[in-house]
C-alpha cells in the first residue's frame, strides 16, 4: 500500500504540536488533517482509506481515553495516543481498549512514524477482512433455507449419508443441495467451505443442532 492512499487524523489542542506532527508526516509522504477537539474531529468527513487517529489524552471537551471507550471501532481508524502526562494506568486502559501505541511527549520522530505506520497497516488489514466478510455474507444470503441447513453439515465433515439422515432426505437429494451450496459460495473443496464457515461464525454446534 502506498502511503499516499491513507490519512492520519491528529486531534490535539496544542496548535504547535498539530503543525509539527503534520509537517513530519507530510515530509514522510503521509497525508494528515488536524483538529483541536473531539467534537471538531467528530463533525469532519472521513475518507474511505486506511488511516490512523493520533489522539491526545487531555482535550478541552472530552478526554481521549473517554472517547476511545465510547466509539464504535468500525467507524474510526486505530488509535495511537500521545500525551504529555503519561502514567501506567492510562497506558494499560488505552491498550486494553485496542490502542495501537501510547506515546509520551516529547516523542522521537522515528517512534511516532513507526506507531502511525503500524496503525495504518492494521487498518488496511481490517478493511480487507471486512470487505471479504461482506462478500461472503452476500453469497450466504443467496442460499435457500434448506441450503443454509446443508452448509454447516457439509462443513462439519459429516458423510453425505449421515448428513442426509439428519435432514430426513435422500442422499442423492442431499448431494444436489451440497453442490448448490458449493456453487453459490464459490468454493471447490470442503476445506474452503470450512474456512468460510469460520469467517462467518458458523460453528460446528450449528451442525449438531440440525435434525436433533
Can you offer a commentary on this structure?
- The chain is α/β, with parallel strands linked by helices.
- The protein has 2 domains: 134 residues, Response regulator (Rossmann fold, 3-Layer(aba) Sandwich), CATH 3.40.50; 68 residues, Winged helix-like DNA-binding domain superfamily/Winged helix DNA-binding domain (Arc Repressor Mutant, subunit A).
- The protein contains 10 helices and 5 strands, in the order E-H-E-H-E-H-E-H-E-H-H-H-H-H-H.
- A 5-stranded parallel sheet has the order 2-1-3-4-5, sandwiched between helices.
- Helix 4 links the parallel strand 4 and strand 5.
- It is elongated and about 75 Å long.
- It starts with 6 loop residues before the first strand and ends with a helix.
Q: Which keywords apply here?
A:
212 residues; alpha/beta; Rossmann fold; Arc Repressor Mutant, subunit A; 2 domains; 5-stranded parallel sheet; 5 strands
List the helices and strands and how they pair.
Elements: E1 7-11, H1 15-27, E2 32-35, H2 38-43, E3 51-56, H3 64-70, E4 79-83, H4 88-96, E5 101-104, H5 109-141, H6 145-155, H7 160-167, H8 171-184, H9 190-200, H10 204-209
Parallel strand pairs: 1-2, 1-3, 3-4, 4-5
Helix pairs in contact: 6-8, 6-9, 7-8
Amino acid at each position: 500500500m502506498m502511503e499516499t492512499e491513507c490519512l492520519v487524523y491528529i486531534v490535539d489542542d496544542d496548535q504547535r504540536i498539530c503543525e509539527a506532527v503534520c509537517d513530519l508526516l507530510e515530509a514522510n509522504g503521509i497525508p494528515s488533517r488536524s483538529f483541536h477537539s473531539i467534537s471538531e474531529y467528530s463533525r469532519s468527513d472521513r475518507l474511505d482509506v486506511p488511516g490512523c487517529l493520533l489522539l491526545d489524552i487531555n482535550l478541552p471537551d472530552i478526554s481521549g481515553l473517554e472517547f476511545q471507550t465510547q466509539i464504535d471501532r468500525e467507524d474510526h481508524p486505530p488509535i495511537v495516543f500521545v500525551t504529555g502526562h503519561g502514567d501506567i494506568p492510562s497506558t494499560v486502559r488505552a491498550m486494553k481498549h485496542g490502542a495501537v501505541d501510547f506515546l509520551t511527549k516529547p516523542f522521537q520522530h522515528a517512534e511516532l512514524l513507526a506507531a502511525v505506520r503500524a496503525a495504518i497497516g492494521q487498518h488496511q488489514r481490517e478493511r480487507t477482512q471486512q470487505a471479504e466478510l461482506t462478500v461472503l455474507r452476500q453469497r450466504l444470503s443467496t442460499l435457500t433455507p434448506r441450503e443454509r441447513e446443508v452448509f454447516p453439515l457439509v462443513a462439519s465433515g459429516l458423510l453425505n449419508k449421515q448428513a442426509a439422515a439428519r435432514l430426513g432426505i435422500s442422499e442423492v437429494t442431499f448431494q444436489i443441495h451440497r453442490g448448490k451450496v458449493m456453487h453459490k459460495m464459490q468454493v471447490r473443496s470442503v476445506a474452503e467451505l470450512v474456512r468460510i464457515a469460520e469467517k462467518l461464525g458458523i460453528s460446528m454446534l450449528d451442525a449438531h443442532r440440525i435434525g436433533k
